[in-house]
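User: Structure tokens for this complex, please. No commentary.
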Amino acid sequence: MDIKHFQDRFNVHFENESLLKQAFMHTSYVNEHRDQSLEDNERLEFLGDAVLELAVSQYLFRQYPHMSEGELTKFRANIVCEPSLEQFNRDLSLSQYLLLGKGEEASGGRERPAILADAFEAMMGAIYLDQGFETALSFLETNIFPNVEPGAFSHVMDYKTKLQESMQKEGKNVSYQIIDELGPDHNREFVAACYVNDQKIGEGRGRSKKDAEQEAANEALQKRQS
Amino acid sequence: MDIKHFQDRFNVHFENESLLKQAFMHTSYVNEHRDQSLEDNERLEFLGDAVLELAVSQYLFRQYPHMSEGELTKFRANIVCEPSLEQFNRDLSLSQYLLLGKGEEASGGRERPAILADAFEAMMGAIYLDQGFETALSFLETNIFPNVEPGAFSHVMDYKTKLQESMQKEGKNVSYQIIDELGPDHNREFVAACYVNDQKIGEGRGRSKKDAEQEAANEALQKRQS
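Assistant:
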């Protein structure tokens, strides 16, 4: 791989450049070069996964101050998952740096989602190990988080739309009503009820009326699945 | 809670002391003080979970340079889990700082494993948010990791002992043999076979003979479970 190209392009300069090379070294490459003392990128992937979890967690924590723990956890799982990590790899054209064995290369490994996602994680592990958490975080803030915003993943939590679409197929009608308001003015909580054909099938609470309705729709969806 | 006592004891001094208080604030306490604008510790717990994942990952990564990604992942899951986090809380006598509602207090909430584990995570989230990752990491290096070592969790991966115990009950005999050695001297890999009553039931690879035998035992255990 062209280590210099990578470092200049992203303005991340490694103390130990072999770590960067290792991040893109697939196990198929290592197996074909047993004479050299190489290590594949799997352990770095283990580390990079945790770097991503924390970086994404603190990003969501600050970005969505009213989101509940449960919503944050779901949101995070939808960012730190193979399809998203594969996409991040593609967004940054990282597959050019991959080191693959001949067999893997011939069978299309350079386009394989798992290989692309794993290399993205391993790269984050290498940046963390060589440069520390703050540099890893700022790499993501510069190159990845701007693409996550605004709302690239918000469909994940839009329960009202999901319920609406599912009920429409069955020819049913969905409506919402705020049935209670709790707490003092500066710390208001709303309780919403969700009705399908005028029958109440869900209830939810939230800091805003919209959040409460979302939670009511979520409960309605869960009841229908169970 | 006695914020000063905590800070002096652990030598961690918060810019925003209300974050530390929030880390120990159970939702039952917030529910009983609706007149104050309080937030419970659940969002901090979300963040702290990720702080722990990364801190433990980098600790294991450095501590066990020959452990595979799969082994590291299993090991991490056995450290960042409710029973361990509850224990960390008890080791540091953190339950004294908990803020609980009266009902929760009366029903023994101060001893409840989930509440103790969650508060430990939330505390790590608060330290990270206020003082950054390096301080959170050094808190764990000072107060927690020394208890993890040496081998407090290693039983988790001791497949040979597990297999031995399970076979003894059935009156069967377990043995191992190194059946192959691969790679150059400086990067040797061993292949071990595991036999029960002289019948081969598992094979494994490792950087050392012991590791290879462990992996062979692991395969044998998995075959027996499936």
